[in-house]
Amino acid sequence: TLSRQPALDALAQRLGPQGLWQRPGAEASTGAAPAFDGWPAHEQDWRGRYRGRALAIARPASVDEVVFVVQVCAQAGIPVVPQGGNTSLVGGSVPDETGLQLVLSLQRMNQVFAVDPVNLSMTVQAGCLLATVQESARAQGLLFPLSLAAEGSCTIGGNLATNAGGTQVLRYGTARELCLGLQVVTAQGEVLDQLTALRKNNTGYDLRDLFIGSEGTLGVITAATLRLHPLPRGSATCLLPCTTLAAAVAALTSAREHLDAGLTAFEVMGQLPLQLLQAHAPQVAAPLSAWAGSATLPPWVLLIEHQSATSADMAQQQLTQWLCGPAAGLSGLHTEQAVVAHAEAQAQALWAVREHIPLAEKAEGLMVKHDIGLPTSAIPAFVEAMQQVIPARWPGARIVCFGHLGDGNLHFNVQPPEGQRHAEGMAAFEPEVNALVFDAVCERAGTISAEHGIGALRAQELQRRTSPVALRLMRAIRQSIDPQGVFNPGRLLP
Ligand code: FAD
């Protein structure tokens, strides 16, 4: 065993001033360089909901340095919080308030090792930004399809640790489906090296799948081999207004049938999130002016993307044929008012509408957020029930609903009544809304977290809503892999 200060001294000596940031004042005793300006960003989450206090921030530059950090921390009993881009929406990536947890940031491990066009794979370090991974694949004429609004800040290690979803799951699956192999540093400081590009490998338990989605509680992902796809030759994108969610679900069924595997995204946006966008980012909301003539925005707007392996013209033709044919025959869809992008820049402007909604929501202020998953067929009845119950119980509360309808994943957020839009008001409002929403989700065989994970935010809820058998098995796995509880204590399984 090692006590805390000698452990920090050992880390400072091995990692150097770039590799170990210490709290201002601490450097006097250790001789390490003072903390850098970037320090606060490592202690606070994206939503500003969780603010912790780190013992130090380790920024290793190699897998050997990660091993060293983990071994020293294990010996000294210092809990380690793995951190990528710190864009977690569930408080999974910041230290707690004790000042005793060390943040292990992967940001300096950001190399793209290789892109392999023959095996349709690429191998990257965990700290690579998702946007860098996408660009590196594209530069070789290939596609890494994972796509989310935080892609300029989140890392591939964080994406895998949370099994991130995003906008292309309908066609390409979640981060799990896009990962072929992993390199992981275990709680004992060993390196599990499984950076393989094999498509098939039935040799015992799938350890890769165990670490994916484990939210930094089982090991530190240091590198990954990713599955790439051929770059589609063209895509077509449209915004499609509709009157009800039942009509939106009928449109999804029809689009799946007629556009088949070319259907890559089927997103839904309610009226209120679009109004928030108009209020907080009017330039981004410009495509919505297509409906400016009508008194209000449509109750729901779909964003649909269709890709073609042949050409952009083909994609456009197929989407238009669907809009003018099968979709036009469905009630509740206003296909005559569809906004179809005719160039890449226009498609990006339509996507910007969807992607800026979380930012507009953030600008609006406090919300109770839910990242729920439901069988798609159950979504209309769920939302209708909530639209009746929530405003009746809390007059003035507003529902901000949008998400990945194609995957049955809704971001179902509730703004408190005006008098309660402050910390105290939220403290009373939030647990009651959560209970109401999650009861309704579970009654319909849904999930309380479709893509954001559990983190600190949903750790208690997971205990309440998961079967004892599943919880026992999860604890047994954690206990056997990280018996000392080195990694991310208090998250996922408190
Ligand atoms: P962090 O936030 O740093 O960490 C997330 C979790 O992973 C933590 O528990 C952390 O301990 C662990 N972790 C991080 N790196 C590693 C590693 N190398 N090894 C082991 N554990 C690690 N998520 C979606 O799924 N879909 C979306 O559409 C989506 N949209 C978003 C939009 C916005 C505007 C924002 C801010 C977030 C969004 N998110 C979305 C949530 C978030 O971006 C994802 O969860 C992302 O995958 C987190 O990556 P990160 O690098 O920021 O990880």
From TrEMBL:
GO BP annotations, alphabetical order: respiratory electron transport chain
Keyword field contains Flavoprotein: yes
Keywords: FAD, Flavoprotein
Family indicated by similarity: Belongs to the FAD-binding oxidoreductase/transferase type 4 family.
The UniProt record lists the keyword Flavoprotein: yes
Pfam families to which the protein is assigned, alphabetical: FAD-oxidase_C, FAD_binding_4
Residue span(s) of domain FAD-binding PCMH-type: 50-231
Domain of life: Bacteria
Gene3D superfamilies: 3.30.465.10, 3.30.70.2190, 3.30.70.2740, Vanillyl-alcohol Oxidase, Chain A, domain 4 (1.10.45.10)
Protein known as: FAD-binding oxidoreductase
Annotated GO MF terms: catalytic activity; FAD binding
Organism of derivation: Aquabacterium lacunae
Cleavable signal peptide: none
